[in-house]
Amino acid sequence: MYNTRDILETITMIQDENLDIRTVTMGISLLSCIDSDIDAACKKVYDKIVTMASNLVPVCEQIEKELGIPIINKRISVTPIAMLASACQTHNIVKFAVTLENAAKAVGVNYIGGYSALVQKGFAYGDYALIESIPEALSVTEHVCSSVNIGSTKAGINMDAVAMMGRVIKKAAQATADKNCMGAAKIVVLCNAPEDNPFMAGAFHGAGEPDCVINVGVSGPGVVRAAIAKSSGLDITGIADLIKRTAFKITRMGQLVAREASKRLGVPFGIVDLSLAPTPAVGDSVAHILEEMGLEVCGACGTTAALAMLNDAVKKGGVMASSHVGGLSGAFIPVSEDAGMIDAAKCGALSIEKLEAMTAVCSVGLDMINIPGDTPDEVISAIIADEAAIGMVNSKTTAVRVIPAIGKKVGEELSFGGLFGSAPVMKVNTASPKKFIQRGGRIPAPLQSLKN
Amino acid sequence: MRAVLTVIGKDTVGILAGISVACAKRNVNISDVSQTIMQDLFCMIMMCDITDISVPFDSFVDEITALGKERGLSIHVMHEDIFNAMHTI
Q1: Range of the domain at A102
Q2: What pLDDT was estimated at residue A1?
Q3: Which of A59, A117, A211, A353 is the most buried if burial means most Cβ atoms within 10 Å?
Q4: Mutual orientation of helices A352-359 and A377-394 as an angle, nearest 10°?
Q5: Do B61 and A255 touch (CB under 8 A)?
Q6: d(CA A94, CA A134)
């Protein structure tokens, strides 16, 4: 028999503390859809996605109702489209993005990720065409997300791709300037991208994955914050233990949903992603956890240490709760999607430099940060290079998702709505890195990569 | 298969009766009840056997939630799996 306290605790977590499953993401391999004729390839892609994912949304809604736990997003990730594009005899590959959009609409998912290219060591046929097409692809679609992996610990950093991505991000923002620059919010540049990530915009279905798989991302910053708030007089060891216990419970719920979804859909279970993913809703903020630990405001000195402890404790608690852990698995610190981060950025306590330091100890990177619309392309490229270097050297995933707010200056607000939230435009150091970025080439893989 | 039904709200006449009738109508057996009044709030937890339920479980959840809204109560019906997952190793 259950104890009343346990039952009420679960209900309070869901009702008052925003506990939810952030996403159930179905990974679908499109390798079987490769065709030299782009129209034939697109038809195969559409048919495969619609067949495989036809039950995804209804099954998730059923689980949601039976278990009483909200599943916020249902998503699809697919094989990086550059791999399909490499076989096509055309450079105009936006058709693939439109196909993904139509398939996403047909099955009713919130997002579809995988308009991606992996170019950490160099460009293969199809990669150039895909990257160049990203701004247009994101301006003509709503549900498609794009990612480009430009570096890894094993391969080093492809500086030609870094230079290219600065331009592409700016163009994506310009192409969607009338839609709050949403294009740039749906593209992420990664280093050490995981192949089983259920979170957008960086989700894609890696080449080593099975034909179809279910990956689940949990959420729950509100629960962690509330647990710390309810405790009193704990030292940091005590707080770390408390976070571990809470993360265990959150992850067990993710594991349950993943198992159920996999069973009902007849698709193998891939991984549970242990990330603490915030939303702009009050009480669902990672920044507020750090503040609950005793910082006046997120961004104050001590933030990096508090975040490092939080990130580690979440993993330690979560790892025993799930049979397979993967994806990004760490605390997210997206600025516009986190009420506490937004406030900290507005009052000037949180700068891009501090965020960069924070990304060295947590997942994932400089995420959902608005920068002035006139930031030069090479500065965006240099931000990407810095972030990728942190990932490369520390053997971790890092990412950059910055949004050049076209026509806006530092301090002005850019709002995206929904889970994307809104945030002030932050100051960027514009001392020119032009010559460094223009050199191109490849940063050699670091010594850490030589583990054999 | 069991579900946990929780009711929280202002105490009025016939809460228990109303919910029991709704459960009986769908062949849901109530196997255990724990109830308390916290300050002014009525707080009840029921363990229900849903093995022989006569409608799909999700439509039973809808019915019970609607009943709660009608009476100004917050009622949740959740499959026991979620409590097992969260509170047992």
Answers
A1: 27-191
A2: 61
A3: A117
A4: 30
A5: no
A6: 8
CB A109 within 8 A of CB A74: yes
d(CA A75, CA A202): 12
Query: Both A221 and A252 in a single domain?
Result: yes
Compute the distance between CA of residue B7 and CA of residue A282 in angstroms, rounded to an integer: 26
Cα of B22 to nearest chain A Cα, Å? 17
pLDDT at A371 over 70: yes
Interchain pair B82, A10: CB under 8 A: yes
To which residue do tokens 């809808």 refer?
A: B62
Same domain, A222 and A151: no
**pLDDT confidence tier of residue A220, bands split at 50, 70 and 90:** confident
Give the ranges where A16-78 is alpha helix by DSSP (H): 38-52, 56-67
* B32: its two tokens: 């255990």
Q: Where among A157, A191, A225 does a domain terminate? A: A191
Answer whether B32 sits within 8 Å of A1, measured CB to CB: yes
Order of strands, sheet of B41-49, starting from the edge strand that comes earlier in the sequence:
B29-38, B41-49, B2-10, B73-79
Number of independent structural domains in chain A: 2
Which positions ≥6 away from A406 have C-beta within 8 Å? A173, A174, A177, A181, A373
Q: Are residues A324 and A185 in the same domain?
A: no
Three-state SS string over A218-280 comes to ECCHHHHHHHHHHCCCCCHHHHHHHHHHHHHHHHHHHHHHHHHHHHHHCCCEEEEECCECCCC
Q: Which long-range contacts (CB under 8 A, 24 or more apart) does B63-70 make?
A: B63/B22, B63/B26, B64/B5, B64/B19, B64/B22, B67/B18, B67/B19, B67/B22, B68/B7, B68/B9
> Is B34 in CB contact (< 8 Å) with chain A?
yes
Strands A442-443 and A422-424: unpaired
Nearest CA in chain A to B84: A2
Beta-carbon contacts of A9 under 8 Å, excluding residues fewer than 6 positions away, are none
- CATH annotation of B2-87: 3.30.70.260
Q: What percent of chain A has pLDDT over 70?
A: 100
Q: Give the pairing type, strands A187-191 and A144-152.
A: parallel
Asked whether residue A419 is domain-assigned, the answer is yes
